[in-house]
Amino acid sequence: MSAASTVIAEPATVAAEQTTAPLMFGRFRTWLFLVGVVTILTGLLFGYDQGVISGALSFIAADFNLSTTLQEVVTSWVTLGALVGALLAGGLADQLGRQRTMVVAGILFAIGALGETLAPGTVVLVIARFVLGFGVGVASVAGPLYAAEMAPKRTRGRFVSSYQLAITIGILLADIVDAVFSSSGAWRVMLGLSIVPGVLLVLVAAIMPDTPRWLMKVGRRADAKASLAKTLGGPNIDGQLDKIAQELAATTEASWGEVFAPAVRRALWVGVGLAVFQQVTGINAVIYYSDKIFALAGFSTPHQQTLATILSVGVVNVLATLIALAWIDSFGRKPLLYAGLIGMTVALVTIALAFATLDRRQPADGVPSVTGIVTLIAMVVYIASFAFSLGPVVWTLISEIYPMRVRGKAMAVATACNWGAAFVVSATFLSIMNLIGEPLTFLIFAVLCVITFWWVRAKVPETKGKSLEEIQEAWTEHDAGVAAGQVPALPVEI
Ligand code: BGC
After folding, report:
1. pLDDT at 12
2. Cα(336) to centroid of ligand 1, in Å?
3. What gap in Å lies between CA 56 and CA 289, rounded to an integer?
4. 3-state class of 287 per DSSP?
5. Residue of 156, 13, 8, 135 whose CA lies nearest to 81
6. First-last CA distance in the chain
7. Atom 9 in ligand 1: which residue has the minimum CA distance?
8. Distance, CA 125 to ligand 1 centroid (Å)?
């Protein structure tokens, strides 16, 4: 992401906001509505591919005769592709523009999905999953960036939230597709259906204008004017463009060296820490391998396993995300994180104990075992606790805590670390479980939740109700105080 100038500013919208009438959902202009559609599609792609593998894996393993390690490779290479895609997305978004980058993401995604569907063997399947992951990674940076630069300030939160919600809806859709095809074992259809959102993204993104900010940056004022007129309008479009030009002139792009410089380093680590802890506490082990976990816990048929997954992972994830979106601003970020981490810890310890002590045998045909029922309940608690806390709060904090000049690059680092951690967890989960058993594996996740709790208390600032500028000032003041020995380095209360 060499020339990444993905500084997510308060772009055109700051100016636009002062001049446009209040925007309500019902009065959204068609183009602005389409910006929402593009954002939602990028979230759906992300979510669908997070979720679909859980139901498809056992059939792929049987067809291709996969060892545990190869099952992990097939599962995790999407995240590896996404890691690379996320790192390159900023540079692509600067070179090609935000809109064309999303078209590219959609094409990569559709090609990857097609490759998966037609894969004659494991090698093609793994390559296809990498390509598809690459598309997901590019979309995971370009989608929110496009939305942030297109949406009016007053509704930007709604756009970012709709992205979060779309991820969970994508996972739920994948779970439903898995359930529908579980009796026939048609894993090629399960994976192949993701061509649909990929093609839709290409079609919708292709007719969209690029963001006024990017167009101004590359000197295409007339196009920037047309884009602004389509999406925001307002009486003084030229004034708004002048404002963007001023902002661009005032915002010098930080170099990579500055991103790692002492002034930003602490904020950088907070974002990276949040991104990594979000993954090492086990969410994608559960999402990717939920059917396997339910199989081990005593749900014997694939149909039972996918049904348990739909209910405990898919539906609960969407509902609890809705709760978070409603309360994130009134409760504050840290209380939500504390509550979620406590719930996750209790659930993980319960799963560990259930595997260690309870009966896994099915009492009668079609009836799940005691371990199965306890695991199902604990999974509901775990997913709900994640979905109202670490899920949305981590992404919100990551988009808030960085000074504007470094925001694009620092967010790319945090996003790549998130995919990297997801890769490590998904690439090792089954092997670790084989090696040390289910109880210890889930206990390790529980211990990591406790460590995350302690770390959040000590290191993460509360950003509720603060403007991005206030957060930036608070970092600076706090760091100056620490340097002068006037305030303790820990805990951070900003
Ligand atoms: C995480 C994903 C996860 C999803 C589950 C997101 O916030 O980044 O890795 O699969 O939540 O809803």
Report:
1. 37
2. 16
3. 10
4. helix
5. 135
6. 31
7. 284
8. 23
Q: Quick one: which atom of ligand 1 is closest to the CA of 287?
A: 10
Ligand 1: distance of its center to the CA of 48 in Å?
A: 11
Picking from 440, 434, 438, 456, the residue whose alpha carbon sits closest to that of residue 390 is 456
Helix (H) or strand (E) run with residue 479 in it: helix 468-483
- For ligand 1, atom 6, the nearest C-alpha belongs to 391
Single-letter amino acid code for the residue at 418: N
Of residues 203, 171, 177, 172, the one with CA closest to residue 191: 177
pLDDT tens digits for range 150-202? 877 666 666 666 788 899 999 999 989 988 998 888 999 999 998 998 999 99
**Mutate-to-test residue for ligand 1 from 287, 318, 323, 424, highest number of ligand atoms within 8 A of CB:** 287
Report the distance separating Cα 168 and Cα 164, nearest Å.
7
Residue 390 falls in which region: left (phi positive, over 0), alpha (psi -120 to 50) or beta:
alpha
Ligand 1, atom 12, lies closest to the CA of 168
Q: In the structure, which protein residues have their CB atom closer than 6 angstroms to any atom of ligand 1?
A: 50, 167-168, 171, 278, 283-284, 287, 317, 391, 395, 418, 422
Average pLDDT (454-483) is 76
Cis peptide before 491 (omega within 30 of 0): yes
Q: Tell which one of 160, 167, 426 to mutate to probe ligand 1, the residue whose CB is within 8 A of the most ligand atoms.
A: 167
Long-range contacts, 258-263 (Cβ 8 Å, 24+): 258/405, 258/406, 259/406, 259/409, 259/410, 259/413, 263/476, 263/479
Q: Ligand 1 centroid vs 414 CA: distance in angstroms? A: 14
Q: What is the DSSP letter of 408?
A: H
* Chain segment 430-443, per-residue pLDDT in tens: 999 999 999 999 99
Report CA(43)–ligand 1 centroid distance (Å).
10
The answer to whether the CB of 62 falls within 8 A of the CB of 187 is: no
Question: Is the Cβ–Cβ distance between 349 and 448 less than 8 Å?
Answer: no
Section 288-310 average pLDDT? 86
Q: How far is CA 360 from the centre of its chain?
A: 34
Helices 438-459 and 333-357: crossing angle, nearest 10°?
160
| Residue 172 Cα distances to 42, 72, 175, 310, angstroms | 15, 22, 5, 7
**Side-chain half-sphere exposure of 462, counting CA atoms within 13 A:** 16
Round to whole Å and give the CA distance between 271 and 414.
6
- Other Cβ atoms within 10 Å of 320 Cβ, number: 23
Cα of 421 vs centre of ligand 1, distance in Å, is: 12
Distance from the alpha carbon of residue 397 to the mean position of ligand 1, in angstroms? 14
